Amino acid sequence: MKITFFSHSTCLLKIHEKYLLIDPFFSKNPIYNKIDYLEYINNFKKIDYILLTHAHYDHVCDVELLTRKFNNVLVISNYEISNYFEKKGIKTYGINYGSFISFPFGKLKYIWAAHSSVFNDGTYGGNPGGFLLHTDEGNLYISGDTSLIYEMNIIPNFGKLKLSILPIGGRYTMDIEEAIIASDFLKCEKILGVHYNTFEAIQINKKQAKKNFYEKGKELILLEMGKSIYI
Description:
This protein is α/β, with parallel strands linked by helices.
């Protein structure tokens, strides 16, 4: 499995020949200027699925742009978000907290998150969540925007995780220390940090953050924009 990080919470997963884009945030992202974000989007050769954790603009703002570019994209999210985009003519697959669901790339389960979820136009965005992804290349937890929640203890019961993608910027989500506790709950030693340094309110010291994880016997991976890891 190849994971490419684009800033904030936007990641692209390549599982065999399937491409899953998580929470696309390019056009309104303060890190990118117009040329930058269009260059990234134009470099996408293929997107098969878009996974949306919740309805905030910094996670959904480029869904319509990308589904116009890639006509056969399937948007997977909670029931309310799926309905919202389906009314715009976008192909969706609505889910909620419940069982695993099989897709060509593996099994997907919508997981609890403690956050909020509303579109910029005021439309209710349903329950915020994350995704538990089980594949023959390993298991991945994508928490979405969340605070530390005790329910994370349940997740290892479904299978050993190779990697967890957790927010670490604080204020609106977990911070560094809470993400370390979350990694204990998840029984996962390797964390990809997201949702940091995009805005002034969620700035972190990257060197100190890595040190804090290391001192607890964990690895915090902080990728530069456009860089990838394999798990």
